[in-house]
Records
---
Amino acid sequence: MEYNFNEIEQKWQNIWEKTKLYETSKEALKKFYLLVMFAYPSGDIHMGHFRNYSVADVIARVKLMEGHDLLFPFGWDAFGLPAEGAAIKAGISPKEWTLNNINTSRNTLKKLGIAFDWNKEVTTCLPDYYKWTQWMFIQFMKAGLAYRKKAPANWCGTCNTVLANEQVSDGKCWRCHNEVDKKEMEQWFLRITDYSQELLDGLDTLPDWPENIKTMQKNWIGRSDGAEIEFPIENSDRKLSVFTTRPDTVCGVTFVAMAPEHEFADELTKGTENEAAAAEYIKQSRLKKDIDRMSTSTEKDGVFTGRFAINPFTGEKVQIWIGDYVLASYGTGVVMGVPAHDERDFQFAKKYNIPIKVVIQPENEKLDPSSMREAYTEEGIMINSGDFDGLKSTEGITKVAQAAEAKKFGRKTINYRLRDWLISRQRYWGAPIPVIHCEKCGAVPVSERDLPVRLPEGNIDLIPKGRSPLADNEEFMKAKCPLCGGEAKRDPDTMDTFMCSSWYFLRYTDPHNKDMAFDKEKCAKWMPADLYIGGAEHACMHLIYFRFFQKFLKNRGFVQNSEPAVKLFNHGMVLDDKGEIMSKSKGNVVSPVHLIKEHGVDTTRLAMFFACPSDKEVLWSDSYITGVKRFVQKFWQLYMNESPEIFKNRNKKFEFMEVQNMGKEEQQLYIAVQKLISRVKDDLERFQYNTAISALMEFTTLVSDYKGNKEVLAHALTQAVKLIAPLAPHMAEELWSYMGYQESIFKASWPTVNKNAFLLDTVTIVVQINGKVRERVELTQDVTEEEMKEMILGMENLKKAIGDKPIKKMITVPNKLVNIVI
Ligand code: ANZ
Ligand code: ZN
Ligand code: ZN
């Protein structure tokens, strides 16, 4: 009576499909929206996908058994560069390549038995989807949140396209890991910075998001509270405005430094003897990378402008420098240099012999500028600061900012590190930007009824040339201006694919709508997602962008919630047996397909779950299968050993009295079942599937040895099969039908614990006085230490034995022993 997974798994997958078991109900009365990050179809499904989607599948099945209306959809993040690479290499179109991969992957996912509602599938590269991505872009335009700007953009020469800031880490491209350069280009930006504060505030409303993700987002948004202070320029009516988080140090300013890109930089040096040197310096530093410019380890250099600024607080004259450690795009692009209290300023001053003036004194040390080795950046007491002397520096921050404001040469300000989102890509395989450029009217959005702007198919030369392949497609480029009707040109660029993935979860709620991106009511029924499962690598990209879209759409009245997902769970990665991340580009991908052929879906997924908790990395090795396979067979056998007859009375509920009066063996099994229910439920909720499986394994051994009556056995087996159902759905269905049920086990109710049974779960506790055994007491398991002490000290013969001698201490070993020292 072997568990014949081949036949059984196929059989149930067919039945599930035929009975539409996973089709989302229309009611959404007790809704649960389970969202998994959709997939990039780069080939077939690999172990990483298999793990993530199976982890989610367990929750989906629990939710079904809890009686929820479940929305558990899937889709494809189908635009993007790899399709172009493959197309150039293999000579098939990006569309064909992508759709082939989608078909293969979908088939595999179906074989893996994941409970997706395939009716809800979305594919971002198809016109019925990208039409609405374009519509989204137009909404941003209408709201004034999409704008065009010529700006130095992050340029990846390998991918031949620009990148958003979020897509560059440590100066490298997120996709190909090659170094990123700068290139001046006209680009579309979305004004995500308008949402900096909302994006930050929202994080505080998400207690069920992992702390590390929230911290990463906070740092990425990077709010800095500080002040702007204006320094008049000597012999000029202009002023240099600086942004500082330390206004308390303003009297220690000994120079002002501006970014080489600053608009005054050229002008300031005109006619001074430093003009030529400054011009050369400006040219050189524009070539440098931001990452090198910002780093504290590289040497800071700069050039003196020959000009001076006046410190508005002290009237002191300070040199104006151009220094490329000052970034043009942050704050005002100018810093007040306080060498005594800022490390970069310190290094700069040392290098160029600029004076150092101490204005913050530590409590028990006297700083001497001539012997300082590094800046003193901590708090302290203000000195050399006129009226502010004696104040704590922390108070000084506010006081100085207030004073600047009162005297009208400054104000409190908040700066964010977050930059606007650059969304133009000079690539073919993306959603065309729905804009027409007219010489008379400028950049005009395509009218909504003309959407989608279709991506041309057929003969497109994809070999990268540094501009969009669409730019050379005359037929595509030619357009009529929607405003004046004149000859005009389309925007040749496509949108960052992160645009497509920023709203797919909304489309799932109404995926077939031809007239709208989604119906507001339908969306409101399901949103927000109750649980979002996906990788942590998206912390500062997708997971910020999708929150931004949601907030924007909320402000425009299209959605009701301001956060898209209530709870976020990051699953761990699957690594190969050498500890490397499995990825197609590394060529170390293990396919789940051969595993399920050989061992079945249920065994493979149990093995994967059993390896470790779902948020941890798993080093995959086929050896995990062996142990689990034995367990599956043993579990199966428990049921096969019994005739289906014993399940006749399977729905029996046991009253407390009945349990109390059972034989010892029956009672033990009954209590073990209750414990199992409580443990498995708890473990699954915390994504600790591994310990849930151990509990089921222990339980299986217990039942194998059980020789008591069949009524309690039937109860035990009925509960156990329900508990294993989310983890091993095919086997559970087969056993359920063996037990005589007509309907799917996923329509059965999720077990509840009979907690009363725990009252019968006693242990014998040995009570000692000064190390000598005096008494044995029966107590219910797991009473607290306090309860245990109280009960024991209340016992008559122990009271007598202790008499009036004071108790020095009580040593307790839970569920075993109490020693009273008198
Ligand atoms: C004077 C000062 C004195 C500063 C001191 C710090 C310590 P965060 O916290 O990251 O916002 N800064 C301002 N604009 C800059 C720019 N465009 N490029 C490079 N650095 C810039 O950092 C704010 C601090 O970074 C500001 O406060 C400024 O230096 C510098 F004892 O002003 B501070
Ligand atoms: Zn790249
Ligand atoms: Zn026009």
Note: The pocket of zinc ion (ligand 3) is lined by residues 438, 440-441, 481, 483-484, 486 (CB under 6 Å).
---
Amino acid sequence: MENIRIELTSAPKAKPNIDPLPFGKYFSDHMFLMNYEEGKGWFDPRIVPYGPFSLDPSCMVFHYAQEIFEGLKAYRRADGSIWLFRPADNFRRMNDSARRMCIPEVDVDFCVEALKKLVAIERDWVPTQEAASLYIRPFIIATDCTVGVHASKTYIFCIILSPSGNYYPEGLDPVKIAIEDEDVRAVRGGTGFTKCGGNYAASIRAGERAAGRGYSQVLWLDGVHRKYIEEVGSMNIMFKIDGTVVTPVLQGSVLPGITRRSILEVCRDWGLSVEERLISVDEVIETAENGHMEEMWGTGTAAVVSPVGQIEYEGKSLKIGGGGIGELTQKLYDELTGIQWGTRPDTRGWTVKVCD
Ligand code: COI
């Protein structure tokens, strides 16, 4: 791959002076771009001033959503140094999404290096506020100009950066989620395991309906039996039932979350019993009612570790573990954020330094 060309802005923006920072509303001064053409591969990697794209209205991404994205974060530690969390895993997962969506793969090591360069240039945009970080959004869009349905032969890869606070305004206060029994998000054989925009577009209607009833998010059931728990959309879901950590098994319709994997690894290292298996909604309701469901939480890059205090199913609302944050949930949040912000040892080599 060629060297990364750098063009710095002559008009840096004012940084948002807000505490708490909203999630994903502000963007830094620069972005990373590269292009792809069939027969040529990825070319012209560059860091340039952040700004709009000019795209033809017939551009394929507008019509058939041939598009994938990722989400990760850069963290500022107490000594001012800036770190990433498992960045290569994000670009590896991007390639898993790319294969399903007929999008050309990227070179993982090159992308990590490009990201480090971009974040180092934008180091002043990494927030100093507690629990805030620089949210990183890599994405690839199909740019062929045609309304014929096929794999595009041209693409743009882009990384943008957003200084962000908590994804849920509740912060670490437990969120309320509604179990959706009408719309479905994904089915096996579809695109559920990828990070493609279409998965999220399909989730909006149920999310809006749930929000209207005071619920932050939707918990999806499998699309075939409408019976097994899948994920929340913005996060994977985990339960502590009778002392065992239980989470839906990955079978193609659930996103293989990097935070999910990290939390399961921590739980196993702590000697906890962990089960990745099918979990029916009946089991969730029954154990929530009879008290065997001790805790419930979501995991995700944006959501981090997010306690769930209340669920709704078929018009019935149930509190989980008394409605507060569970002991294990808090412990996992502290451990994960401790590793990310460098206040706890990273014994697994998950963190990558960007700059001092
Ligand atoms: C992330 O956690 O990074 C995601 O991409 C989820 C998105 C809904 C913000």
Note: The longest strand covers residues 154-164.
